[in-house]
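[retry 2/3] Protein arginine N-methyltransferase: previous attempt timed out, resubmitting with same input.
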Amino acid sequence: MWYLRSCGRFCPRRARFLSRLSSLMQVFRQTLNPTTGRAEWTAMDEDYDYNQEVARSSYTDMLHDEERNKKYKAGLELAIGRVRGRGQRVHVLDIGTGSGLLSMLAVQAGADRVTACECFKPMAGAAQKIVKTNSFSDKITVIPKRSTDLTAGPGGDMEERANILVAELLDTELIGEGCLYTYQHALKHLVTPDCIFVPHAATVYAQVVESDFMWNWHRLRDLPITGCEKALVPSSDMEACMGAAAVHDIQLSQVKQEQFKPLTEPIKVFRFEFDKKMESLERRTELSVMVTATGQAQVVLMWWDIEMDPDSSVLLSVAPSWAHPTPDNMQWRDHWMQAVYFNHQSIPVEKGQQVALHGRHDEYSLWFQVQKQGSTTSAGSEFSLERPVCRCGGHMVWSRPRLGMLNDRSRWGTYAAALKQVLAPGQTCVSVSDASWVPLMAARLGAQEVGLLYSSGGKNDKKCLHQHIYRLIEANNLQGKVHIVQGSEEQLEAALEDRKVGMVIAEPYYSSSLLPWHSLYFWYVCTRLRHKLQGGATVLPARAELVAVAMEFEDLWRLRAPVGTVEGFDISVMDQMVKDHSNQTDERVEPHPLWEYPGVGVSNPVTLMNFDLTQSVPTENLVATGEIPFTCSGSCNAVALWMNYDLLGDGRHTVSTGPRAPYTSGRPQWDPHIRQGVYFMDKPVQVSADFRLVYRVTFSPKDGRMDFQFDIENSQGKNL
Ligand code: SAH
Ligand code: ZN
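[retry 2/3] Protein arginine N-methyltransferase: success.
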């Protein structure tokens, strides 16, 4: 059921999406299998799907976030102390109770009564069970409703208004889960005028930086090709485009120091006091800020902190390491990261200068722009900070990491070198790709005609994809040489008429691919096109291999570690939901951008399976079994998986979707533009060099599925 996951990144805080789903009883949807490219009907019934959603969501990561839990507890204790000090009985409203944790903390801290609501029905059910298991049912009432559907007053969901409101409705962008409206509604309808909010307030910070590394996620650059006079260029409308609207969240502390240069100090841009009435859920501000280093203002980094109590004595910050109040004692978490915003243009700024930092937010998002002070007003036009929208199409065709990949010159150098070796004059070439440099490069390097069949499994809107690629072809003067074929292989066949194809090429990269081997889609298309190929036709890449390395991740494994007890409460009901899910399906592998998650290899990288792309997809299952020796002592908690493509089949032009450089041991330098596959072990296992990882991999050609089984054996051959 990976095909549902169309979000660019793997489900951080998907609560809003889930709540919409939960109202549907049973849904059938037609989805495209990302590997075979064929349509499939998928049933989403309640038991199956929601357990998976819970299993793969951020709920357990939140529960593992000890700093968060402890600070909510401290905030609740302070609030309850205050209300008691006023001589009042304590009635807590917990909005979005999830597992029920905050409600139980409130009772433990002395609340007389807690009303908990939760709009995601399967979670509300879990909360009820957890509250019962921990014997809190007499004090906590769980209502399976959205807070905005609750009523307070005689005969309502709550007999009277609450005098403490606790909620954890914050995401990486702070307000992305809609907390502003939820709080405003609660102020008006659900709580008393003197109600204490936990947390009480939040501050949004921004820091302007120069960073080629990040700017490459925003703008497509020229691509010089060795031996060609003319570089490949982006379409010019991309230069003026504001870019994509969606927030870009990353583990900012993993960006290396040499990959960015701060141009200002961190700046407080917005403060939200959750217990105050807001005139409007939209605000904008302009701050004059001092530039602390000369450079190009390209990117605005964002993070926030929250004050758990009205005296601001308990503070929780999600700042990156260099701006964190306690850099040596930082909680790892994945449910809150930091966000990156892109300036419309790269602006040169000088140390000592003042620049204008514009910030704006609406109900759900934030955005920023840096400007030279007075620069636009002097030109006569008022600077308007509009929400970014992509008008060029390019930012819709390409995700941000994909743009980074298209700007990765060393990657494209490998393709150019391989193409040069095999392109013969007069050849008709078919490129099976999403919007890629490959077909343009082939045309520039001399292919007579290139038919570009783009992935029919692509998630992008076909029309915008088509138009932007067309402009890209025009910008490079390759009209007449590169033809776009929209749709399926059948359409391609029709377009080819009676021409025979001398070469089929691909990166292969498809935006519909979530796991590394989904790009074997290329193999399926080649197989279906076989009868159109000339004798001796080139297939590039010629070979693929699936590679694995046993890993000791510092933190990533926590995402899937059982919760057990949290702050003394038994939350194992959640673990059971996750386990039920794992028993139902073999889908153990998740995509993660591993450059954001530190870890070391505890084995050498090993090829699990080879694919000869010059041959047809086999009809029988491919099965590979074997052992991977561990190379050092450590805690093995996962196996990282990726694909390597050998473009010509001679081992001399290899492109990897795993480590950037051939990797032997230690910390892999993961390619930052693509996600790798991660198989999480049931539990971390302490291994040493005489242990081994026993594997069995099955590739089923019928549906393109890859199933994995990994077991750890000690030196006596005992399964651990
Ligand atoms: N309070 C839990 C879970 C936090 S996740 C904890 O701290 O561990 C946020 C939860 O709030 C999600 O389960 C989401 O479904 C729910 N939610 C978000 N907005 C809501 C609203 N307005 N009313 C009820 N539930 C809401
Ligand atoms: Zn655009």
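[retry 2/3] Protein arginine N-methyltransferase: The longest helix spans residues 66-85.
[retry 2/3] clearing retry counter.
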